[in-house]
Write a structure and sequence with these properties.
Layout lengths: L17 E4 L6 E5 L12 E7 L7 E7 L6 E4 L3 E4 L1 E3 L26 E7 L7 E8 L3 E2 L3 E4 L11 E4 L18 H14 L5 E5 L10 H14 L3 E5 L2 H4 L19 H6 L12 E5 L2 E5 L11 H11 L8 E6 L15 H13 L4 E4 L5
Helix pairs in contact: 1-2
Subcellular location: Secreted
Catalytic activity: a phosphate monoester + H2O = an alcohol + phosphate
InterPro entries: Calcineurin-like_PHP (IPR004843), Metallo-depent_PP-like (IPR029052), MPP_PAP (IPR041792), PAPs_N (IPR015914), Purple_acid_Pase-like_N (IPR008963)
Length: 367
C-alpha cells in the first residue's frame, strides 16, 4: 500500500465534451467542443463528518479543494479550526509490469487536496452550524449538523448498509454504476429529515470506483446531503483494498489498483495507524467493533488480537448492545451469488459467541 503524500496534486483540468456514435465497442467521434474552464477550480467541496471518539464532543470534517493552502471550518459562535492538508499521487496506486491497473493508468484522476479539521468543544445530541473554506477560495454554504449521542446514553438511531456505490442523475452511461444508490440516498435523506438518523455506518464497497479515481468525487457529491449533516462512518471493503500486489487477505483485482489509499484519505476513521483500518466506537447504548475483512484476521494476527481484546473489554452495563461489523459476510443464504469464507467464520465466530455479540452487520460482497 502506498502512503498519502502532500504534493503532486494540481487544480482540476479543463473539460471537453465529445459527441460520438457507435457505442463503446466501435466509437466514432462526431464533434469535440472547445475546453470549458472551472469558474473556481479551488472551491471547497463535499464536506463530510465523522466521529473521532465516543464522547461526541469532537467531530472530524473532511472536504476537498484544488488549493493546497490550509483552510478553515467556522462553527458555533465564531469558533474556528485550521485544516490539515494531504493528497495522494499516481505513484501511490498499486500496479506492476505484469499486472497493470486502471488507477496507475487510464483511470487516474488527480484528487486535488483533501482537507481535514477537528471541530472541538461540542455537546452530544446537539445541533450546530458550520461552514468551511477560506476568503481566498470561497466558502461552503452554512450547514446544520447534529452530533451523535455519546457512548453510554440511552438511545441511538442509525442506518447501516454496504455496497451502495453511485450512479449518474441522468441517463449517462458510466463505468460500473449502481442505479439503486439513488433510491437509497433519497430514502436516507427522508429518514434524516424526519429526525430518525443519529449516524450512518457504510460497511465496505464505498464507491465501486475500482481505479477510476474521478468516481470518488461522484460519490462524495451523492452523499453530501447526508454526510454533511450526521456522522458518516465507514469500513473498508474488497473494492477499496484488494489487489494482487497489495498484501490483502484475498488476492483479487477488485480495487483496480487503489489499494486502500483513496479510501483512507477521503474517509479518515479513528484507527490506530494507516492501513490498519479497524476501530471501535460507542454511540448511545451501542459499542461498534469495526474490522477489515480484507486484512489478516487469522488467529495470532494483529487484527484478531485487537478485536478479541476490544470485545472482551466492553462494559455491557454502559453499552449493552455490541455490534460487530465487517464487509465480507460470515453467513449467506445466496451461496450461488456470494462466496462465504468458512475459515473466516470458523476463526471469528467463536470470539463473537464468547462475547455475546448482539448483532453482526456485513456488506453484501456482490462482486
Amino acid at each position: 500500500m502506498g502512503n498519502a503524500k502532500s504534493e503532486h496534486a494540481v487544480p482540476p483540468t479543463d473539460i471537453e465534451f465529445v459527441f460520438s456514435a457507435g457505442g463503446f465497442h466501435t466509437p466514432c467521434v462526431l464533434k469535440t467542443t472547445l475546453p470549458f474552464k472551472f469558474s473556481n477550480p479551488n472551491a471547497p467541496l463535499y464536506g463530510h463528518l465523522s466521529s473521532i471518539d465516543s464522547s461526541a464532543t469532537s467531530m472530524r470534517l473532511t472536504w476537498i479543494s484544488g488549493d493546497k493552502k490550509p483552510q478553515q471550518v467556522i462553527y458555533g459562535n465564531g469558533k474556528s479550526q485550521i485544516s490539515q492538508v494531504t493528497t495522494f499521487s499516481q505513484d501511490d496506486m498499486c500496479g506492476s509490469t505484469f499486472i497493470p491497473s486502471p488507477a496507475k493508468d487510464f483511470g487516474w484522476h488527480d484528487p486535488g487536496y483533501v482537507h481535514t479539521a477537528i471541530i472541538t468543544g461540542l455537546q452530544p445530541s446537539t445541533i450546530f452550524n458550520y461552514k468551511y473554506g477560506s476568503d481566498a477560495v470561497g466558502w461552503s454554504d452554512e450547514i446544520e449538523f447534529r452530533t451523535p449521542p455519546a457512548g453510554g446514553s440511552d438511545e441511538l438511531k442509525f442506518l447501516v448498509f454496504g455496497d451502495m456505490g453511485k450512479a449518474p442523475l441522468d441517463a449517462t452511461i458510466e463505468h460500473y454504476i449502481q442505479p439503486g444508490s439513488l433510491s437509497v440516498v433519497k430514502a436516507m435523506v427522508e429518514e434524516m429529515r424526519n429526525g430518525s438518523v443519529d449516524s450512518i455506518f457504510h460497511i465496505g464497497d464505498i464507491t465501486y470506483a475500482t481505479g477510476f479515481l474521478v468516481e470518488w468525487e461522484y460519490f462524495l457529491h451523492l452523499i453530501t446531503p447526508l454526510a454533511s449533516k450526521v456522522s458518516y462512518m465507514t469500513a473498508i471493503g474488497n473494492h477499496e483494498r484488494d489487489y494482487a500486489v497489495s498484501g490483502s487477505r484475498y488476492v483479487t483485482l477488485d480495487s483496480g489498483g487503489e489499494c486502500g489509499v483513496p479510501y483512507e484519505t477521503y474517509f479518515p476513521m479513528p484507527t490506530a495507524a494507516k492501513d490498519k483500518p479497524w476501530y471501535a466506537i460507542e454511540q448511545g447504548s451501542v459499542h461498534f467493533t469495526v474490522i477489515s475483512t480484507e486484512h489478516d484476521w487469522t488467529q495470532n494476527s494483529e487484527q484478531y488480537k485487537w478485536m478479541r481484546k476490544d470485545m472482551e473489554s466492553v462494559d455491557r452495563s454502559k453499552t449493552p448492545w455490541l455490534i460487530f461489523t465487517g464487509h465480507r459476510p460470515m453467513y449467506s443464504s445466496y451461496n450461488s451469488l456470494i462466496t462465504v469464507d468458512a475459515t473466516f467464520r470458523n476463526v471469528v465466530e467463536p470470539v463473537l459467541l464468547a462475547n455475546k455479540v448482539s448483532s453482526c452487520e456485513f456488506g453484501l460482497l456482490l462482486g
